[in-house]
Write a structure and sequence with these properties.
This protein is of the alpha/beta class. It is built from eleven helices and eight strands. The chain has one domain: TIM Barrel (Alpha-Beta Barrel). Helix 1 packs parallel to helix 2, helix 5 packs across helix 7 and helix 7 packs parallel to helix 8. The structure holds 2-phosphoglycolic acid.
């Protein structure tokens, strides 16, 4: 039996309105209050963080953000500092999501800087890593994962992973309806844990590694049953309360 508590995180991406998120949170918090083994986290767009902080206050659901600046303050138009997220009770921040890496040119070093900034402000980074389809097809998956992971270990140190979460998200599975098979996912999750264990065994055993990429109500259970999968980072299905709740209830 694993000692790691499962985490199910909803990443709403750039979706929702003030009205729709109110309804979504009401339905999700009702379902979660009826009991779940998982720790449940919601990551709304920045502008709704304050609203959610209020809505989630009397629930067991945690609040997170989808991105953050690596800097503390200053003339950086359009950016949001980690301390601002902390002000609104955010406990987690996603860093290095593949959409940030690909569409906004965030490289491994920038992602590592964000990871450090999140921790420096007393929050937990959820570090996303994952390979592109062509990288998988040319057998480079482990090389890519190792590079993305090593960049953070190098800058933040292995002990930083005692207060961090990792999300393995194969880019070809995100928003495509094409989920990694449980075997493919478990193989990479185990690789990630072994890579960390080269530096510190205990840290590697303790860190939660989520799977993300087309997790749905009907495939979550098979994924969450695997030894090194400690929950999920959920995009599309987190926008539908019933689906998200089914996923939360699928943890071992
Ligand atoms: P998806 O997104 O569940 O819609 O594939 C997952 C993610 O991008 O975190």
């Amino acid at each position: 039996m694993s000692k790691r508590q499962s985490l199910v995180a909803g990443n709403w991406k750039m979706n929702g309105s003030l009205e729709s998120i109110g309804q979504l949170v009401a339905a999700i918090s009702q379902g979660v209050s009826e009991g779940t083994e998982a720790e449940v986290l919601l990551c709304p767009p920045y502008v709704y963080v304050a609203e959610l902080a209020g809505l989630l206050e009397k629930t067991d659901i945690r609040l997170g953000a989808q991105n953050v600046s690596h800097l503390e303050s200053g003339a950086y138009t359009g950016e949001v500092a980690p301390s601002m997220l902390k002000d609104f009770a955010c406990e987690y921040v996603i860093v290095g999501h593949s959409e940030r890496r690909m569409l906004y040119s965030e490289n491994d070093v920038r992602v590592a800087e964000k990871f450090i900034a999140v921790q420096a402000n007393g929050m937990i980074p959820i570090l996303c890593i994952g390979e592109l389809l062509e990288e998988r097809e040319s057998n480079c998956t482990e090389e890519v994962i190792a590079r993305q992971l090593d960049a953070v270990i190098e800058l933040a140190g292995i002990m930083a992973f005692k207060a961090a979460v990792i999300a393995y998200e194969p880019v070809w599975a995100i928003g495509t309806g094409k989920t990694a098979t449980p075997e493919q996912a478990q193989e990479v999750h185990e690789f990630i844990r072994l890579r960390l264990a080269r530096h510190d065994h205990e840290t590697a055993e303790g860190v939660r590694i989520l799977y993300g990429g087309s997790v749905k109500a009907d495939n979550a259970k098979q994924l969450f049953e695997l030894a090194d999968i400690d929950g999920g980072l959920i995009g599309g299905a987190s926008l539908v309360a019933d689906d998200f709740l089914t996923i939360c209830h699928s943890v071992r």
